[in-house]
Write a structure and sequence with these properties.
Radius of gyration: 29 Å
Order of helices and strands: HHEEEHEEEEEEEEEHEEHEEHEEE
Keywords: Hydrolase, Membrane, Protease, Transmembrane, Transmembrane helix
Transmembrane segments: 129-152
Oligomer: single chain
Strand order of the largest sheet: 1-2-3-6-5-4
Structural class: alpha+beta
Shape: globular
Biased composition (Gly residues): 91-111
Protein name: PDZ domain-containing protein
Strand content: 15-25%
Biased composition (Low complexity): 24-49, 157-170
Length: 493
């Protein structure tokens, strides 16, 4: 998803304070200057529906949650499935042609009317008081200085005088668990990724150290340009830059693994948390390179869990589905692929998408944070990354049925006809064995409410092939339940 940053130019500060009344005493003072410058049908990925996707390399823009609209007929079984209309874009790619978790942003019109310097009041009681205070301060300062000089001369016995100043505030200590302490520990294990295709197009995203062998986890949309003959590099906060290569990428999950060439021996993988145990209201810390500003740290909370999100980078590429962690930590283009940490510094998600309200400003064409960011839960991302490292290909769980991507809010309906004339329920597949039929409307998967096909796909993909789930569905106006063992599909095509 993509969000856009709305705002405007800061109103100018008044050039000077209003002049004091004529009868107020003038006080001179020192002057100085301060420089401040899954497919739905056909089951490519799970429920066999065409997935929709988005970016936190690139971010697009569309409402969070399942993509609206869509045809009630089964989507094309071929991969990649077309992104659903009005889907959010990715959030993390600050470069051209991509959005990523934390990409893009612009400011709109001003905050209001220009600042009007108030006219001086007549009568000037306040002016007299201020001037009197200034004079008193100057006199007191001068008197104190004079007394000090006199006492120094009287006490001077001809020896040397040592002038010492006491330190104030004591030593700065940042306890474990503070944002500063967590950031200091995590930043050395994050990288800014630059990806470019063979024709030079690309963008910027983020990644983090997954193991000591040099594997870096990020978003698929961050490195997609470099998959076929492109260039890929990763830069650490200390400025050390390494060439890298794509080990494997999963378009449906929006997860990718790259490996550093000539990786250093002192890599420190980030500790992975348990995204299932995350609670709404938990503190979050996001690290990334928003708009190319590497090593940026932002904070927030978990504002929702299990948020169904279908995202895309808006370029016509395949869509991704996730049952996301929602956070209000500021995420912009360039944040995509970066870690979302808990208060102890454990990775609980991969920043992937942002909700957008429109296009960005300043000619960037990108959107910025409006406090609606989405991260892939780390429990799911860990499984995907391990499969990519092991085989180079993603593995998706599936039920073996074609579902409609239409946003009906009543459930995920198994289509009456499969893609390209195929059966809507795979003969002998998981759904067939569980007794599901065309026209059945799936309303729950275990305890998760299912309101659409994309929501079902996202929930299925939080599981692994072989997992047993309970499906609640409606047939002929009656509610039923069935047990189903998830099947598997290898690869994105």
């Amino acid at each position: 998803m993509s969000t856009e940053n709305e705002g405007s130019a800061v109103p100018p500060a008044p050039s000077a304070p209003p002049p004091p009344p004529a009868d107020a005493p003038a006080a001179s003072a020192p002057q100085g200057a301060h420089a401040g410058a899954a497919p739905a049908a056909g089951d490519p990925y799970g429920a066999q529906g065409s997935p929709a996707h988005q970016d936190p390399g690139p971010y697009g823009g569309a409402p969070a949650g399942p993509p609206p609209g869509g045809s009630s007929s089964a989507p094309d079984a071929s991969w990649p499935p077309p992104p659903p209309p009005s889907t959010p874009s990715y959030g993390g790619d600050g470069g051209a042609g991509h959005g990523a978790a934390g990409h893009g942003g612009g400011w709109g019109s001003g905050w209001g009317t220009p600042y009007q310097q108030p006219a001086p009041k007549s009568g000037g009681g306040r002016g007299r008081v201020v001037a009197a205070v200034l004079v008193a301060a100057l006199v007191a300062g001068g008197l104190g200085g004079g007394l000090g000089y006199t006492l120094a001369r009287e006490n001077d016995s001809g020896g040397s005088t040592t002038v010492s100043s006491s330190t104030s505030g004591g030593n700065v200590k940042r306890d474990p668990g503070t944002v500063a302490a967590v950031a200091a520990a995590a930043l050395p294990s994050t990288v800014t990724i630059e990806a470019a295709s063979s024709n030079g197009e690309g963008g910027t995203g983020t990644g983090f150290v997954f193991d000591k062998q040099g594997h870096i986890v990020t978003n698929n949309h961050v490195v997609a340009d470099a998959v076929d003959g492109g260039k890929l590099s990763a830069t650490f906060p200390d400025g050390k830059k390494y060439d890298a290569e794509v080990v494997g990428n999963a378009q449906g999950y929006d997860v990718a693994v790259i490996k550093l060439k000539n990786a250093p021996s002192d890599l420190k993988p980030l500790t992975l948390g348990n995204s299932d145990e995350v609670a709404v209201g938990d503190s979050t810390i996001a690290i990334g390179a928003p708009f190319g500003l590497s090593n940026t740290v932002t904070t927030g909370i978990i504002s929702a869990k299990n948020r169904p999100v279908a995202s895309s980078d808006g370029s016509g590429s395949q869509a991704s589905y996730m049952s996301a962690l929602q956070t209000d930590a500021s995420i912009n283009p360039g944040n995509s692929g970066g870690p979302l940490l808990d208060a102890q510094g454990n990775v609980i998600g991969i920043n992937s998408a942002i909700q957008s309200t429109g296009n960005g400003g300043f000619g960037t064409g990108q959107a910025g944070s409006i406090g609606l960011g989405f991260a892939i839960p780390i429990n799911q991302a860990k499984y995907v990354a391990q499969e990519l490292i092991r085989t180079g290909k993603p593995v998706y769980a599936k039920i073996g049925a074609s579902v409609s991507l239409e946003d009906t809010a009543s459930g995920a309906k198994i289509t009456e006809q499969g893609v390209g004339g195929t059966e809507p329920v795979d003969p002998g597949g998981p759904a067939d064995k569980a007794g599901l039929r065309p026209g059945d409307v799936i309303t729950k998967l275990d305890d998760r409410v299912i309101d659409s096909g994309p929501t079902l796909i996202g929930e299925i993909w939080t599981h692994k092939p072989g997992d047993e789930v309970t499906l609640t569905y409606e047939r002929g106006g009656k509610e039923r339940t069935t047990e189903l063992t998830l099947g598997s599909r290898v690869g994105d095509s």
